[in-house]
Amino acid sequence: MINVNDNIVVEKPTYGGALTVFKWRRANIFEVPIEEDGMNLDLLEKLVKKNKIKCVYIMSYFQNPTGISYSLEKKKRLLNMAEIYDFYIIEDDYLSELIYNDMEYKSFKSMDINDRVIYIKSFSKVFLPGIRLGYLISPKVFRENIQNSKVSTDIATSSLMQRVLELYVCNGLWKGYISDLNKFYKEKYEIIANQLKIKLCNKAEIIYPNGGLYFYIKILNDDIDCIKLFYKCRENALLITPGVLFYLNPEEGKKYFRMGFSQVKDEDIEKGIKIIGETIKELYYK
């Protein structure tokens, strides 16, 4: 679907794995900054007026790495722009089950009256990472190419794993599991959000996404970057994800890091955030 010299637009910052794939396909990658309610569509519109764009890759809920979700207004506008300027939207909806407030769930695909959205959904984050299952809903124009690519890549996904998931869903276990998962992570999210406000309030700028599995944090001190912070935290058995991984130009990510909490025990939360705060302080006075 994406070939050499095709023009692709991504959010800035964005998922490092997507950047790797688009580079591997030797596409031309354009970055458009993400705002508090989604991609800056004014800048995107200027871009699509000057360049023939094939696809815009977005994450509609809890964008990786920022945790930002798209507003309904931006969803409508982006869908309209896709029709006007003849491009397709790749919607990576990988984590929308984990909404911790009253935010309404409404995917781009559910509003797609012009067949402009390539919808991707993964079960790996919210079910069993080891089964590596997901699905894709494609516009008609790409369907045959995508099916052929699937066959040539790995022939077929494990029938056993598909059957396991089918039984789990059809026996009514899925909804209960997602409800329990949401409650579990919401409690963890609230503990972490509270600790971040207490321990990093003067050291960092934090996005509170109200969902998902991580926080995106900007280091306020100009003398500290995420690489230094990463190595110092690692010395204390604490891992963060440096922001340099989420940009075409790694330099633009040096003031940011992502902090995940999917595997963190409640009793380690306060300790971990204390380590980050003390490490930032240590690097500042070093």
TrEMBL record:
<dbReference type="GO" id="GO:0030170">
    <property type="term" value="F:pyridoxal phosphate binding"/>
</dbReference>
<dbReference type="GO" id="GO:0047536">
    <property type="term" value="F:2-aminoadipate transaminase activity"/>
</dbReference>
<dbReference type="InterPro" id="IPR015421">
    <property type="entry name" value="PyrdxlP-dep_Trfase_major"/>
</dbReference>
<keyword id="KW-0663">Pyridoxal phosphate</keyword>
<keyword id="KW-0032">Aminotransferase</keyword>
<dbReference type="Pfam" id="PF00155">
    <property type="entry name" value="Aminotran_1_2"/>
</dbReference>
<dbReference type="InterPro" id="IPR015424">
    <property type="entry name" value="PyrdxlP-dep_Trfase"/>
</dbReference>
<dbReference type="InterPro" id="IPR050859">
    <property type="entry name" value="Class-I_PLP-dep_aminotransf"/>
</dbReference>
<dbReference type="GO" id="GO:1901605">
    <property type="term" value="P:alpha-amino acid metabolic process"/>
</dbReference>
<protein>
    <submittedName>
        <fullName>2-aminoadipate transaminase</fullName>
        <ecNumber>2.6.1.39</ecNumber>
    </submittedName>
</protein>
<keyword id="KW-0808">Transferase</keyword>
<feature type="domain" description="Aminotransferase class I/classII large">
    <location>
        <begin position="3"/>
        <end position="275"/>
    </location>
</feature>
<dbReference type="InterPro" id="IPR015422">
    <property type="entry name" value="PyrdxlP-dep_Trfase_small"/>
</dbReference>
<dbReference type="InterPro" id="IPR004839">
    <property type="entry name" value="Aminotransferase_I/II_large"/>
</dbReference>
